[in-house]
Amino acid sequence: MNIMKMMKQASAMQKKMADAQAALAGQELEFQAGGGAVTIKISGAGQVLGVRIDPDVVAGGDTDMLEDLVLTAVQGAQGLAQEAAANEMKKATEGMSLPPGMGL
Fold first, then answer.
1. CATH superfamily of domain region 3-93
2. CA distances, 17 to each of 42, 61, 84, 90, 102 (Å)
3. What is the pLDDT of residues 15-40, one digit of tens each?
């Protein structure tokens, strides 16, 4: 492969990666725990955008359960964001002849 072709491919890859990052930032994903008792909204880039807690859960006074639900919801939302990022990166690198071990 000649150097000009490699540079052109690298430039195209940078553009695709920037587009993928912009797409991720624009995605809004939600994860619910406890049957909707706690809902976390997160961007595809992993930024937490909102937290919603059912007032009945708070009124119950079981803070240990509420903490567990919040933790579960945050971890679940992060998992959704990671999955979205992996899918976007896969799309961004489709058709590119990357050296072995350089897949994203």
1. Nucleoid-associated protein YbaB-like domain (3.30.1310.10)
2. 20, 46, 14, 10, 14
3. 888 888 888 989 999 999 999 999 99
